[in-house]
Amino acid sequence: MLAFRLFHDQGEMQWPLTLYSCGLHPQHPIVRPIGYPTAQCMICFSGSGTFRFEGASAMEMKRGDILFVPSKLAHEYSPSGTEPWIIGYIGIEGDFVESLIAALRLPMMERIAVNEHALLHLESELRQLWHTGEEEGSDHHLDVSTKIYHLLAYIGTIARQGIRMPPKPNRSHSGTKEPLRTAVQYMEQHYMEELSLANIAHAVGYSKQHFQRLFKERYGMNPSAYLQRLRLLKGHQLLEGESGLSIGEIAAMVGMELNYFVRLFRQRYGETPAKYRTRYGRGGHADGNRNERAMDR
């Protein structure tokens, strides 16, 4: 989880996009009679909840839904189920916020549904933005502004694809939605174990080859790539929250061998797990990180 954070220092230059706030955590009921100071992009990663805008009907928001909220518009929201309602969000300010959102054809106050592949990508981007926002340096504000633009442009691409390419009725795909969702849930529940594609396919009643083809058609990547990205994301979360664990222990907890975890983490995030932990002030077992430091040489 990422705690709510306000970013006050916007630098001397007037950037077109700046980060006002950011976070990713379970939500509780909120009432904003005068709205929020900036436009917000809100992404649901778990559970469900209800939004109510002034003068509009209530709107349900569940996992995979994105919602853009205008600035200074009265609204309220609250969880609607027993499962934690986990929302990732950014508050965006700057002279070009509204014009960019309009240019990207991002609808305000309307849900944009994304698939599991996109949701994983968005969580990774959101986490990087949250950490980039706390950095310092001459290029800091440029980096933040660029990351916000990339995030909005990515969502805009997803939204346009959803409009241009609605699902076609197809007998071969009509019954695959639920089994594939079950496969994703199975990976999320067992990613720390030694999973094989054959085991996952068997769990949802498909052959390995048929499962791979259907999964890639729906999520844009094969199941192995999805599982790999999921494990890296879980490792990323553990590095942020479990300072008492060594890198080797974290690798084992996400079902990966240490050297493989370090190599893929560096490819994905641009630095090794130990460097990431050091840069953000996390601790960890010195002995447990020694093997990774040796691999950096």
UniProtKB/TrEMBL annotation:
Keywords annotated in UniProt: DNA-binding, Transcription, Transcription regulation
Protein name from the UniProt record: AraC family transcriptional regulator
SMART domains: HTH_ARAC (SM00342)
Family annotation (InterPro entries): AraC-bd (IPR003313), Homeodomain-like_sf (IPR009057), HTH-like (IPR037923), HTH_AraC (IPR018060), HTH_AraC-typ_CS (IPR018062), RmlC-like_jellyroll (IPR014710)
GO terms for MF: DNA-binding transcription factor activity; sequence-specific DNA binding
Domain HTH araC/xylS-type: 181-279
Keyword ATP-binding among record annotations: no
SUPFAM superfamilies noted in UniProt: Homeodomain-like, Regulatory protein AraC
Pfam families: AraC_binding (PF02311), HTH_18 (PF12833)
Annotated TM spans: none
